[in-house]
Amino acid sequence: MKIMKFGGSCLKNEEDLELVAKIIGQEKDEKVVVLSGINRVTDKLVNFLQKSYSEKEVDSLIAQVRHMHMDLLTKSVESKEIYEQAKVKIESRLKVLERLLYGIHYVGELTEKTRDLVLSYGERLSVVILEAVLRSRGIDAESLEADEIGVVTDGNFGSATADLPLVERNLQESVLPLIRRGIIPVITGFFGRDAHGSTTIFGRNGSDYSASVIGYALNADSVEIWKDVDGFMSADPKFVKNAHLLDELSYDEAAELAYFGARILHPRTVEPLKLKGIPLRIKNMYRRELPGTLVHGRKKVLENKVVKSVTYKDIGALKIYGSGVGSMMGVLGEISTHLSDNRINIKSVITSQTCITLLLEKEDVEKSYRVLSSTRIKSVEKLEKVKDISLIAIVGEGILNSPGIAAKVFNAVANRGINVEMFAAGASEVAFYFIVKKRYLGDAVKAIHRIFFQRGRHHGKA
Ligand code: ASP
Ligand code: MG
Question: Disulfide-capable partner of 211 in 5, 44, 49, 414 (CB 3.0 to 4.6 Å)?
Fold first, then answer.
C-alpha cells in the first residue's frame, strides 16, 4: 500500500486537479491519499486571525474561500449529482467556519484551541473537492476528516505530536476496511484530535507529517510526497545555480536538512517512518520523469563525498550573560522552563562560562527577551537580542567522523572575508552548523557549495 500526499501547491487550479486525479488513477497499488488545503487557504486563515475583525470581514473571507473552492468544483466536476453532493458538504463546513469566526469576534478572544480548529478548515474543504473530482472520473473515493477517524494527538496545540500506537489501532479499524473494499480514502492532512476530542494541528506544513503518521498506522510500503519542486537539492538554487538534485538521503539526513531550513519537508516527517523503515519519496508533480529524492533507512557514507547538502535558515538568538552561568547548576533548566511555559522552542544552545546563547526562531526573539527579562533567574546579569543572523548547516552521513570537513568549510568562508559568529558540531551525527550575519548568507552558501561540489574537482570523485 502506498500513501500519496499532495501539497497545496499541487492544488492551485483545475489543471492541477486533473493531474492529481490522473496520478492517483494510474497508481496500481492500493493507496490512501493525504491532502493539504488548496493553495494558500491556510495562509489566508492564519492572516485573518492575526488581528481583530468585523462581521463584514468574516462575510467577505467566507465568500472568498467559497469562491476558491466552488470555482474549482465547477470547472472540474461535470456530473451534476456529484457536484451537488460536494456543494452540500462545502456549504456545511463553511457554515461551521463562519460561525467559529463570528464566535471569536463576539467573545473577543482567541484561544489556541479555537485557533487550531479554524486553521483545520483548509483541509476539511480540499478533501471534498478531490473526492468529487475522483468520483466524477469513475474512481471510488471517500473523503475523511483526520479527527473523525482517530488520528489522535498529544493535545499540544499549534504543534502536536501523533500518538502512533493509538492512531494505528484506530486507523486499522476506520480506514483499512475502506481500502479493502477498493475505495480510496482521501484524508485531511495537518491535524488530528487530542484525547478530549479537540482538533490539534501539527504545525505549519504539517500534512507531510500526517502522511507519515498515516503510513505508519496502515503499515504502508511507501509514502510519496508530491510537490512542485524536484526534491532535496545540494543547495538552494536561489543561491547556487548549479545545485543538483539529491536522489537519496538517509532518514537522519532528511530530518536535519528539514530542521535546519530546507523548506521541502516538515521536519518531523521522517520520525514515524524511521520506526518502521518505511521509505519516503518526494516527487515533482510537473516533472514526473524525474526520480525525485528517496529517503530511507540505508546510510550511505561515501568516503570522499560525505557532504550531501548545505542548507540555511534565518534565525535569531538571545545571549544570556552572567558570571558563572556556564557552570551554575539549574540555570539552563530554569530558562528553558520559562520559555517552554510560554510555548517558545529553543532550537539549539551554545554555552560558555559567561554566556548562554539560545538559538531561536527569529519570530521568538522578542517574546523570549520579554519573558526572561520579567523573571529573575539566578546569576543572570544581562540579556542581548541578536537579529539578522543566519544559520548554515552542512549535512551528510559520516560528517562527524570525517576529518577536515569543518576546516574546509571555515576556510572557504574565511577566504570570502566572512566572520563565523558561532558554530556547533557534535549534536547530530550527520550535521554541523555555524552562524553568520544575514548579509553574508548567500556568499557563504556559494563558497561552501563550490568547495564540495564544483564540477571536475569534487563532483563524482573527490
Ligand atoms: N495547510 C497547512 C499549511 O499550509 C498544512 C500543509 O500545507 O501541510 O500549513
Ligand atoms: Mg499548505
Answer: 5
Does ligand 1 have an atom closer than 6 angstroms to the CB of 39?
A: no
Options 3.40.1160.10, 3.60.21.10, 3.40.30.110, 3.40.50.150; CATH for 2-228 is 3.40.1160.10
For residue 207, the ligand closest to its alpha carbon is 1
Q: Give per-residue pLDDT as tens, 9-34.
A: 999 999 999 999 999 999 999 999 99
Task: Find the ligand nearest to 211 CA.
Answer: 1
For ligand 1, mutation pick of 145, 190, 210, 268 (most atoms within 8 Å of CB): 190
| Ligand 2 geometric centre to CA of 131 (Å) | 18
Whether 163 and 154 have beta carbons less than 8 Å apart is answered as yes
Kindly state if the Cβ of 276 falls inside 6 Å of ligand 1.
no
Domain extent listing, the chain: 2-228, 309-453
Q: In the CATH hierarchy, which fold is given to the domain comprising 309-453?
A: VC0802-like (3.30.2130)
Which residue CA neighbors atom 5 of ligand 1 most closely? Answer: 205
pTM to 2 decimals?
Answer: 0.93
pLDDT band for position 255 (cuts 50, 70, 90)? very high
